[in-house]
């Protein structure tokens, strides 16, 4: 792991995470990129050094720190909305504070579909004064589990988007996995535990596309022997979810978790089972990858003392985590009461000709980043490009966004929507037909589901700047499935002074203004 003040070299090198050798776009030459760790309150200074040379893939880059609010450092948010790309041979210092967040986050390229080629990794903010630490009471919280899709044979497709989307052929857990057609003995990730200890595991879907049903064999329902004869199943709450998307939630027991691209969960795992090897499973919603045979879509949970062998365990998880059972531990700021929001938006999805639309408009990246348009004198959101994709918001308003279920059904789902610069309250989750204004789950990626009911979120505008809202299936973002919230445009230039190096990323554009 690397700390909050670091260089991060971005380079092309060959890796074989599933046994096939292919070129990737990689942070420090590894997949996933190195874990970045810091503490709540830290100043992060991450100097991204672009050493990309492979001309058949994108050679520019920019990195988004997914889930971090970037309050007064909108320019460090890393999407093309807020910066020009870093050219090959150049570097750029992302210098930002994390004053009030702790939990599980990640980082990824936000240029085209570049992160699918490898530029993605986990980022964890520890809270040395975690007010809830005694609730979890864990012995160890160092384990991070990343779930990623990988396409061994797609290297040249991945950075030059075509529709339909390229299809993954392997699930990589902590950067290792077996593909449908690759070597059957490709190494799998091993997660080590000691019997009798309690662990906080951090699960991160650094996925380009699939969602996963995640579970660990033997750690859901467990058999207990009574009278030496009768086996009955006793639920021991061995897995308890405690965090969603960097927000602490009250403990809720589950056997399995459906996790969508961009989402994170922490759960407590009680290592109370026999010393043995157990399958860790992540089933993607990819029809051609729908089994665990031969260790596909799998990793290994190994108790200390168990043989260096693959598990023989086999069990099924029953009790899947429901988003509606997540209750934030800290309801401050209070969720908006059930009155009319200040701003009430309904988003209708569409798809035609290989492009997605929101309320009739496909997001086409502007030639000048939205933030630069603002700093160059645009006074209101209506001046901002791309037209039809920028929604102006005033400061200190409650904004409600409803993803229209019928429209989701029309194009097919689910679509995991991510908002930059904020968390939001999930007033209504996918598949639920009631609203929760009292203690709704709070997170930064919500699935719109397969469309049985509207999905509704609310957030407060407290963070001046342009912020992306988009589908986190990277092919869909590339196909225009996004809008931009331009929050408090008039205050951005003073709330958010940019460093000179930021201006230098956009030499051509600056000359035009
Ligand atoms: Cu994790 Cu705009 O993305």
Describe what this molecule looks like in 3D.
The chain is mainly β. The protein has 3 domains: 123 residues, Cupredoxins -  blue copper proteins (Immunoglobulin-like, Sandwich); 184 residues, Immunoglobulin-like, CATH 2.60.40; 170 residues, Cupredoxins -  blue copper proteins (Immunoglobulin-like). It has 8 helices and 33 strands. The strands form 8 sheets. Strands 10-9-12-19-16-17 form a 6-stranded mixed beta sheet, with no helix packed on it. The longest helix is centred in the C-terminal third of the chain and has 7 residues. The chain starts with a strand and ends with a helix. The structure holds CU-O-CU linkage. The site of CU-O-CU linkage (C2O) has 11 residues, from strand 5 and strand 32.
Distance between the termini: 42 Å
CATH H-level superfamily of the largest domain: Cupredoxins -  blue copper proteins
| Low-pLDDT stretches | 221-236
Could you report the average pLDDT, rounded to the nearest whole number?
Answer: 90
Got a strand count? 33
What is the count of helical runs?
8
Total count of domains = 3
Helical residues, percent = under 10%
Bound molecules: CU-O-CU linkage
Outline: globular
What is the CATH topology classification name of the largest domain? Immunoglobulin-like
| Widest β-sheet, arrangement of strands | 10-9-12-19-16-17
Main sheet overview = 6 strands, mixed
CATH architecture of the largest domain: Sandwich
Q: In percent terms, what proportion of residues is strand?
A: 35-45%
| Global structural class | mainly beta
CATH class of the largest domain: Mainly Beta
Query: Which radius of gyration do the C-alpha atoms yield?
Result: 22 Å
